[in-house]
Amino acid sequence: MMVSRSHSLRPFLLSLLVVPALASKALHLFQHTHSLSPLLLALYFPTFFVLEILLFVVAWFLLNRTYGAKSAIGAAIVGLLGCITLAAASSQIGFYFVTGAEVRWNAAKSVGDDPEGRKLMLSGLKPVLCAGLFLLVLSWLLASGITSVMNNWFAAVTGAFSEESTEQLPGANQKGGSGLRRRGKQWTIIAAAVVFALWLVRPSDPYNHISGALPLSIFYALLVNPSSNVDTSSSSFPLPDLLNPVYWEAPKGHYRGWAPTNGESLETDDYPVTVPEWASPNLPRGFERWAQKSDNSEPVAALESDDEEETDDYETQYYDPVTDPLRITNLDHELFEPLQQALKEHDVPISHVVLVIMESARKDVFPFKSDSHLHQKILDSYEDDEAADEVNAKLSRLSPVAEILTGESSGFPDHEPNELVKDFWNVTSRPGMGGINVNGMLTGSTLSFKSALVNYCGVGPLPILNLFNKVKDGRANSSEDSQDRMEAIRNRKWKTMFSQSITELYDKQNVLNRKMGFNQSICREHLDNRRSKHYHSGMEAINYFGYPEVETYPYLEDVINDALETDSRLFLSHFTSTTHHPWGTPSDFDRKHYFYDDFLGTHDDMDHYLNAVRYVDHWLGKFMNLLEDTGIANETLVVFVGDHGQAFHEDSPVSGTYENGHISNFRIPVVFRHPLLPRLQVTANATTMSVVPTILDLLVNTKSLNQKDTNIALDLMNEYEGQSLIRPFQSQKNGRQAWNFGIINAGGTMLAVTSAAAPYRLVLPLTKDFEFAFSNLEKDPDEEHIINEWNLKGLLKKVKNEHGKEAAKWVQDAESIAKWWIEERKRVWNYHETV
């Protein structure tokens, strides 16, 4: 009986391996059909299944051993491989159903290693389970058929016997069996020879990637780092003519000059390497470059100790703006004229700085605008004008707070944003005032924490504020006199606080925050602590990371009041998270349908997202009103910046930010809000690398720093790659372009490249699993007609044919600059690959 049961189980074990593996390959091929020539796809089609066939043959032999221990071990191995393949194929299908993208197993392992990351993965469990159940049933139904086919093939080719010595395989005893075996062998040999020849002559890219087979691709991804598609072995700058000494710039004041030397250190009489006078003992962490010993002097500063300081055998490298071939500064230009005039007419005190980073904040919803690409997609889902009028009425109320913050009109008729927010935000700024809104901004990374590094640090430290504190003697006294009061404010010490309503444990965000210089934080772990001041039962989690932002309100109020009571200056960073997948909102929130509610739920994700946008817009209004209620609104600079955008199926074939280079993942809002600053609309094709230099520039020019801090800020402003956004942005200089680079989630696989001097955009693959992508944002701002190619040569040919020689030349420059930039980032960040 045991033998019979084992024998009946083996066809199912074989089918459990075959069906999911072939389903995975079918999906894999489907996802790449758009990028392959139909002729070449047909020609090389047999080669795509070589690994699967070899795997199935091995599995068949393992299942057809004589009974006993070897047979049981063989069945166990095939069963284990089948279960792994079933789970992996189900994950692939489920992931594709949700995002339209492919699973990258090495990235999945990285996320799965994090306890909070596993919650993220489990959020998509339903489609995975449905796919798994379907494949399981299909494997059961096809088990006998698959086994019969393989048995007959082996019988025809080898005449082999089955595991029962008294019974040959089907076909082995047929009339004319020897002829059948002979023909079977001949055709098998011919087919194998043809496939082998095609395998040898086909290009490695992308066909090696397409030929990957489950579960082998999982084992390979987990054991081997993905191979690079980019040769970055040369560290020489690819456009040396732009570095001619005739273009060099002499030092002047706090500006150290520009004399690029392909990354080599430079110290001459004209460009001396000096230690600034503020580099006193006990510098905060992050200022190591100013603690270094010069050639003829002893170290001038000792760094604070760090319990987690790591040492290695490599020489520490730092970013040097003097020798950076790409750096273009605009600090030698005057402030925008309206800003100059306003600063002459009245004081604009900045006692506190608040940096609000908004999760998945697309620029086209901050604010949502009539006649935008997204607006048209919504209208297209309706069939009659009456329904369109109704949805327009709802859309006009989607983002009134964003309209006020940016000064941009939504464009809907009969619409007054101040009336829409009066119940929760008492707006006190006068008409024509409110600060600087920047259009054209791009994120430096579509992964939140990498984006945070760009927003907070650039290539320098957020502990700038700790440095300001180091040079102060103590707490300043308050005064009623306006002049004395401003002087007192300038001499106060800074407190740094980070707040969010979600966990800070995901991807070690708590460690990152501390390293960047935050002294305190509010997060889900704090909200969940029963000893917390404002803990209460019944808090409603809206996603796998935590709670709605409103749960932080009483804590933020305490933080502000504490700063006022202790005469401290506050640097508060607040992260909004409701607009993160799965875009949940509190149960009592009045959800709206914006897209037509079809049976298939085609637009459900975007609908959820737009509701989350409306919720966060309301929250931002309440947050701004908190500044009003605590009396600090008129002396607080509030910077609003998106961490990245968010692509949906309405934008591109692939939704989400994961390994998706679409432009909708990159366009973000950036606003510098202050009620006493004039309303300015600025256009700058730049990344958020410019946020910190702009904050420093505003602090200096509003005279919100004392003399010591001002000198430090002026020095540090000239250390950043980014330009200041309150001065005319320089898109090019002496042939050099202001290049922008964007790291695509999760990093290490693709890099987005743009230039402020051209409308073109390149997505560069860093591994062999991805294609090159080119777009002309001037002609195709929403990237509906992207040019894809698996190699640079093919891409250049297509770009030249469709967009001309100038565009093709730009692609060549962008590709070479990006390769150099990758190696330069490794050097600057002291990244050393381990073997």
Automatic annotation (TrEMBL):
| Keyword Signal among record annotations | yes
Q: Where is the Sulfatase N-terminal domain?
A: 505-699
**Span of the secretion signal?**
1-23
Task: From the UniProt record, list the coiled-coil ranges.
Answer: none
Instruction: Note the superkingdom of the native organism.
Output: Eukaryota
Record's compositionally biased regions (Acidic residues): 304-314
Q: Which Pfam families match?
A: Sulfatase
Q: Where is this region: Disordered?
A: 290-314
- Keyword set, alphabetical order: Signal
**InterPro entries documented for this protein:** Alkaline_phosphatase_core_sf (IPR017850), GAG_Ulvan_Degrading_Sulfatases (IPR052701), Sulfatase_N (IPR000917)
> Is Signal among the key words of this record?
yes
Q: What's the protein here called?
A: Sulfatase domain protein
According to its UniProt entry, this protein's organism is Aspergillus sclerotialis
Q: What is the lineage of its organism?
A: Eukaryota, Fungi, Dikarya, Ascomycota, Pezizomycotina
